[in-house]
Amino acid sequence: MILSPGHPHAALRNLVDILDIDQNTRLAWGPIRCERAPLPNPDSRLGLPGGRCPKMPTERRELLAALGMLALLPACAYIGADAAGLAAAEDFAVGSEGTYYDARSGDRLGRRRLLKRILPAPIILLGEVHDSAVHHRIRAGLLLDWVRSRPERPAAVVFEHLDREYDDALRLAQKRRKGSAGSAKPAKPAKPAAGADSAAAAEAGGAAVRELLDAATFDRQAWGWPAHRPLFEAAQASGATWIAANFSRASARRLSRDPAAEVDPALQAVLDSARWSEQAQRALSQALLQGHCGALPAAAVAGISRIQRLRDAGLALPLLDASERRSVLLAGNGHVRRDHGVPLYLGAYENEAQVIGFEEVPGKTSARMLVDLVGAGRAQEFAGAYDFVCLTTMLRTGDPCANLKPLPAGPAPAGAGGVSPAAPTQIPSR
Questions:
Q1: Are 347 and 297 in contact (CB under 8 A)?
Q2: Hey, what long-range contacts does 77-80 have (CB within 8 A, 24 or more apart)?
């Protein structure tokens, strides 16, 4: 049953949480039936086709039925709440691992309302704190839902985690697996397998992920494997094409040794056509200084800024094929930001893209308004950087800058300004 917030039995929502029913889908439970509120496959992680409900253990079904019988007697008039009531109720149905906000208005969103806003977009950008396993799990579900919402359209997943030098090898590996060139349409959701079949399917999926990561020479140590495993598994399960797009550290080192070295003409063209400004440059420089705990010499900022911009151009390049396919970018928050990141390189697609930042906050992650949770200053920052933001609880302890020694002041050595030292606030430094 869908209860409006003012309903005398709205507290039964808590029962859903206690019984571990998935909080990211809205289910209408009655004593003898179950109906999904209208939403196309709202949580693909369940492996369920749209319009069906997960089976619950018998004792849980009986408990819900018993409590439902008590609640439903005076409550039948609340079945079929109006649209305004549903929207209000959805604000309370936030996921247990994160809370979504409209970054501009500051309003809290339920997952259903977020999906309604992002599913039609031809491009979505999903940020991350690189070492947050929670972010990767949440984004895996969003990725699957977004790809599968339009099964008739080809889709691509663009990875910061894979270096663009190996994209050709990655494409060949995908063609071998798919059996024919150019077959990149997302697979339709399959019914969940059971028992040995489920284990075999999981093993096959894991083998596919390993093969593609090996083809792309994925640096498991640098990226803290297996933190990102849910993302890669979701990308494989979606049937989308993988694209390796990072401007690698090896490329950065070559450019550092020889700043006059030629850059890939395609990247340079994207760089030159960006909607860049002095304000964007100031925002990027400030972000680089902050990301390196203030230990970055001023003389090194220009060279490192150039590398960061080339990375953003490299990540943007595959997204410019939006007329041919839909694309999702998986990258750090610093790359997806609207004030100095990839959106500025998207040209006509800048306003069609949807940007979701994934940020961490100490303590609780939910309040009615974003400003009440993070304060006016950070809320204003989020408004300029993202369309939506997902907040999760910060799990790490201690100051990431505590053990970082300031770099020597003074002019940078010739050709040495292009490679960023390790940035402890964005792990790993890529």
A1: no
A2: 78/1, 78/2, 78/3, 78/4, 78/7, 79/1, 79/2, 79/28, 80/2
The single-letter DSSP state of residue 156 is E
Are residues 49 and 131 located together in one domain of the fold?
A: no
Q: Which domain holds residue 234?
A: 122-352
Determine the residue type at 212: L
Task: Tell which residue, 203, 268, 264, 269, has the closest CA to residue 236.
Answer: 203
Residues 145 and 43 in one domain: no
The CA distances from residue 345 to 282, 335, 358, 360, 399, in Å, are 17, 11, 21, 26, 33
Long-range pairs, 411-414, Cβ under 8 A, ≥24: 411/299, 412/297, 412/299, 412/300, 412/303
Task: Answer yes or no: pTM beyond 0.85.
Answer: no
Would you give the DSSP letter of residue 128?
-
Q: Would strands 123-126 and 354-361 be described as parallel, antiparallel, or unpaired?
A: parallel
Does residue 113 carry a pLDDT above 80?
Answer: yes
Instruction: Extract the tokens encoding 416.
Output: 């040495």
In 143-257, beta strands by DSSP E: 155-163, 241-246
Q: Where are the beta strands (DSSP E) in 15-130?
A: 27-29, 34-36, 99-102, 108-109, 123-126
**Assigned domain for 430 exists:** no
Q: Are 147 and 38 found together in one domain?
A: no
Domain boundary, last residue among 85, 111, 138: 85
Across the range 120-136, mean pLDDT stands at: 96
Say if CB 294 and CB 392 are below 8 A apart. Answer: no
What would the pLDDT profile of 329-386 be if each residue is shown by its tens digit?
A: 999 999 999 999 999 999 999 999 999 999 999 877 778 899 998 999 999 999 999 9
The SS3 assignment for 148 reads: helix
- Indicate the residue among 352, 367, 397 that finishes a domain: 352
Residues 177 and 303 in one domain: yes
Cα 73 from Cα 69, distance rounded (Å) = 7
pLDDT for residue 200: 57
